[in-house]
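Our preliminary data section would be incomplete without showing what the modeling component actually yields. Below, a chain of 334 amino acids is followed by its predicted structure, encoded as tokens that our downstream tools consume directly.
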Amino acid sequence: MTNIRKVAELAGVSVATVSRTLKSPDIVSPTTRDRVLQAVNEAGYKPNLMAVQFRSRRTHNLVVLVPTIANTFFARVISGIQEEAQQRGYGVLLCNTLGREATETMYASLVTTRQADGVIQLRACNPFPADAFAPGAPLPMVNACEVLDDAPCLTIRLDNREAARTVTEHLIGLGHRRIGMIKGPRRSPLTRDRQAGYHDALEAAGIALDESLLCPGDFTPQSGYEAAGTLITRDDPPTAIFCESDEMAIGAISRIKQAGLSVPGDISVAGFDDIAFASYSDPPLTTIAQPAEAFGRQAVAMLIDVLEERARDIQHVVLPHELVIRGSTATAAA
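Predicted structure:
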């Protein structure tokens, strides 16, 4: 096993500084702490984490790995995390990872170096090395929102497939037969499941899938704006568009109106998330509401129950969704 001298060498600090950082991170500068943690990760250094010792040295800190704090849905999840953690006497170390695995791994090492007790991961990625914990042991982690299919840890998610089916059925019920879809990132399980729900609804209604009506996006308003531009300039544009996020839907509405078309008179638009802006967009957005703050609160509660040994089994929780119908969807034009 790599020793502490190798870590000190990589970080360009003394052995005493490495030891001080690992034992009392609050007394070293953030710059030094980050250098040491990165060196710990690069060197594969692991202090002695005997089970009894690990359980007895709680920091009452939780690491939260968020792909981007700019996303308004994640902001609501973080709010729920912060509120629940504070009520339970835990602090939150928020890490804006930008979806980078190396960054996630570096911050997850705060747990294996005893500077934090557990991780809440909001992306479908396991940030711990395969040999970080005993084989078969559940990870000290809750994977929330976008979850791994085979996560060896607690998970909390929405039934995204069923939710996407619900909103697509709403559009079909309004008489729409050509329904475009602006998807999320290609590698995201959310994209896979929401597209599957869209397919389910079309198939049940006897509507053939037209792959050309599917446009890529990345959950941002700009991607929704650009994808809508592609869809509405077709020779046979859709009469409705389902966007896999509200931010993309708001971008899509902007592009449609810029082209001189009416929402929902010419094209209905539906989103997903029910962010705060959804009810104030023009027109107000039909969307799937998911309980973002509840994701955060329950993730904290589940993780602390495991850390404090009140729960031992791996739980997989599914939260409810609700279709919120507003002014952005209407009966298809004859």
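The mean pLDDT is 90. The radius of gyration is 23 Å. Preliminary results of this kind motivate Aim 1 of the renewal.
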